[in-house]
Amino acid sequence: MVAFDGPSKAPISPDDILDTPPSKLRLALQPYLSLLELDYAVDDFLIAVKKRESNVLRGEASNAVDSGPTARARRKRIRPPKREKVYLVVHRHDNMLYYKRLDPEAFAILSALNRGATVEDACIEPVNASVRTDIDWSAQIKEWFDNWSALGWFCRLT
Questions:
Q1: For residues 60 and 121, what is the distance between their CA atoms, to the nearest angstrom?
Q2: pLDDT tens digits, residue range 78-134?
């Protein structure tokens, strides 16, 4: 409900932050974002449930004989989500609800920004704590911020 019905603030533009050094820059996250650290792959589970419900609704809207793939879909049991660490953002884009998985470091950066950390501080700790060594962190962080900005996730602090 938060992601779909929550309020939205005007996203910041590159011009809004162009001259602010990362050591002083603080970014707020859109109020409709939910950051979730989960122990189960509930995103995959929800997608499977919605897919089955969609198939069932299509079958119920038809007057065809009830023995085809739709009938099997109604009888098919969806497996419970598997146990795995999942870092997830629930958000909306163009009035559609999405679940976006994040790397642990990306999740930590967004969480730190959400707590009011500067961009510099939000990025330093997760990178230093990461066990991954095969990554060009500057390029990776730039890619994440480009993606998050394109999705309109950043807004002004109030």
A1: 54
A2: 777 789 999 999 999 888 888 899 999 999 999 999 999 999 999 999 999 999 999
Burial 9-23 (b: 16+ CB within 10 A, else e): bebbeeeebeeeeee
User: What are the Cα distances from residue 120, in Å, to 12, 107, 112, 125?
Assistant: 18, 15, 10, 9
Yes or no: say if 31 and 7 are a contact pair by the CB < 8 Å rule.
yes
pTM, two decimals, is 0.79
Task: Read off the pLDDT of residues 60-77 as tens digits, 9 standing for 90 and up.
Answer: 554 555 555 555 545 567
Give 112's contacts (C-beta < 8 A, 6+ positions apart): 121, 122, 125, 126
